[in-house]
Specification:
The strands form six sheets. The chain has a seven-stranded mixed beta sheet with strand order 14-15-16-13-12-18-19, with helices on both faces. Helices cover about 35% and strands about 20% of the residues. It has 15 helices and 23 strands. The chain folds into two domains: about 280 residues, Aldehyde Dehydrogenase, Chain A, domain 1, CATH 3.40.605; about 200 residues, Aldehyde Dehydrogenase, Chain A, domain 2. It is of the alpha/beta class and about 500 residues long. Helix 5 runs parallel beside helix 6 and helix 10 packs across helix 11. Bound molecules: nicotinamide-adenine-dinucleotide. The site of nicotinamide-adenine-dinucleotide has 29 residues, from helix 8 and helix 9.
């Protein structure tokens, strides 16, 4: 265990940790997993993973807790979520540092992610008093009709490595106020984040005698992920991860007629019109393409520039890229931390080779960054800008690394065609001063993404809006707006308060 990180102790992380929480930490019988610091290659701590037996214990604990929780009044559930949010506030500093240590995100991004978890807790508290149904007018005399929303049961939450706390919070804070229990399977690349967060919120649930309500199960595909996905006791699986895995998950959950929320890969573009504020374009593209080392689902991967301003934009962007400091994500001034694992570095280099073979020209970066001292074994790369002649295979794919493809267009029709040509449909943006072009981009005939912005980049969504995307991004929605409805079941009630039994549609029977 790395000796000088006092915040690990504050979060209850030890040299060796149980990977299964079922109202209490279990003794695990699955294989051991090492959590590694991607900036140094050093082991941070060990995790004993769950086997099928511990999975079952976690599932039982969540199910038992749910039987009580579903009857707790929703505003009271909100009060308990409020206290969970308070605990995250108290531990924000330590939690943010752990995100940086385990995933390589910059400290600012780590703290920002915890803040996002706190924000969604606040949002969910308010939502707990607004789980509104409708009332309708019955066609029958002396009848009333309404619909109400009931909890679903245990929600399975499978998360990706790159938002190791916020995505759990998006799902669980809403699911809890909706009256559901949660069973979380986090990424094998960020298990300590999940253990720490569970330790942080645990006292609140223990005080209510409901410790199993947020169960955690860390383990492999066969021991944990697959059993969870195939478990007919889980009516809803919320899956965040790559499109390839999500496609398999979707088919399996649908096969047992379960529901799923799918938050999958993105291939997000910024469209730059000739009247755009180029300073804003450069700043937001830099954050969008290089932030989190290109490992956000909303990372800017394609820059579609009007040919009239393309050279100017490229020149400024190249200058900005030259100032990007690649290095220790814990250090102030670093703008690009490491990739999550050596395979991600290899995938980036491989994609760039294919881009070149497909006619792409690498304008900067695209190599391993060899750092010194403790960082020598880190997964560092230099962010790349690649100019492409036309949309080709590599541009259609999501490579989870800082590669920005630049393509040019002559008019808005061409920009929209290029924009919508990729299989994914998560986030998109246009930079223009023209209301007409901005509105066209966000119209039904414009961007086909779940998120379309004007004069704001593709990454960095607020929690108040519904988050998610179309096509290969999976169609799910989480976080704000009316996303809460996915975590509940709708029931229509008709009450006859008269003495006759009229049938609907005026049917006479007997
Ligand atoms: P991944 O698909 O490798 O893993 C995601 C999760 O699925 C992990 O918990 C993993 O252990 C689990 N998993 C792996 N194989 C599985 C299987 N066969 N069955 C069930 N579960 C399985 O993704 P990743 O590398 O952790 O994350 C990066 C990907 O996630 C990118 O594609 C990114 O765009 C996407 N992502 C999407 C969003 C979104 O909101 N749209 C947010 C974050 C990340």
């Amino acid at each position: 265990m790395t000796p000088d990180y006092g915040f690990l102790k504050e979060l209850g992380i030890q040299g060796s940790n149980s990977g299964a929480f079922a109202g209490r930490w279990l003794t695990c019988t699955g294989p051991t997993l090492d959590s590694t610091n991607p900036a140094t290659g050093e082991r941070i701590a060990r995790v004993e993973q769950a086997s099928k037996a511990e999975y079952e214990a976690c599932m039982q604990a969540a199910s038992q807790a749910w039987l009580r929780w579903r009857l707790v009044p929703a505003p009271r559930r909100g009060e308990i979520v409020r206290r969970m949010g308070e605990r995250m506030r108290e531990k924000k500093d330590a939690l943010g540092k752990l995100i940086t240590l385990e995933t390589g995100k910059l400290l600012q991004e780590g703290w920002g992610e915890v803040q996002e978890a706190i924000d969604i807790a606040d949002f969910a508290v308010g939502q707990s008093r607004m789980l509104y149904g409708l009332s309708m007018h019955s066609e029958r005399a002396l009848h009333s009709m309404r619909e109400q929303w009931h909890p679903l049961g245990v929600v399975g939450i499978v998360t990706a490595f790159n938002f190791p706390m916020a995505v759990w919070a998006w799902n669980s804070m809403l699911a809890l106020v909706c009256g559901d229990a949660c069973l979380w399977k986090p990424s094998e690349s960020a298990p300590l984040c999940a253990i720490a967060l569970t330790n942080v919120i645990r006292p609140v649930l223990e005080a209510e005698g409901l410790a199993g309500l947020c169960s955690l199960c860390i383990g492999g595909v066969d021991d944990v992920a697959r059993p969870l996905i195939m478990d007919s006791r889980i009516p809803l699986v919320s899956f965040t991860g790559s499109t390839a895995v999500g496609r398999d998950v979707a088919a399996r959950v649908a096969g047992r007629l379960g529901r799923s929320i799918l938050e999958l890969g993105g291939n997000n573009a910024v469209v730059v019109m000739p009247d755009a504020d180029l300073e804003m374009v450069v700043r937001s593209t830099l954050f969008g393409a290089v932030g989190t080392a290109g490992q956000r689902c909303t990372t800017t991967r394609r820059l579609l520039v009007h040919e009239r301003v393309a050279e100017q934009v490229l020149e400024r962007l190249l200058r900005a890229y030259q100032r990007v400091k690649v290095g220790d994500p814990m250090e102030e001034g670093t703008l690009c931390g490491p990739l999550i694992k050596p395979q991600a570095v290899a995938a980036m280099l491989d994609t760039l080779e294919r881009a070149k073979a497909q006619g792409g020209k690498v304008l900067c970066g695209g190599t391993k960054a060899q750092l010194k001292g403790r960082l020598e074994r880190g997964n560092f790369v230099v962010p790349a800008i690649v100019r492409m002649g036309a949309q080709t295979e590599c541009v259609r794919e999501e490579t989870f690394a800082p590669i920005l493809y630049v393509l040019t267009f002559q008019n808005m029709d061409e920009a929209l065609r290029l924009h919508n040509e990729v299989p994914q449909g998560l986030s998109s943006a246009i930079f223009t001063l023209s209301v007409r072009d901005a509105e066209r981009f966000m119209s039904a005939a414009g961007s086909d993404c779940g998120i379309a912005n004007a004069n704001i980049g593709t990454s960095g969504a607020e929690i108040g809006g519904a988050f998610g995307g179309e096509k290969d991004t999976g169609g799910g929605r989480e976080s704000g707006s009316d996303s809460w409805k996915a975590y509940m079941r709708r029931q229509t009630n008709t009450v006859n308060w008269g003495t006759e039994l009229p049938l609907a549609q005026g049917i006479q029977f007997g």
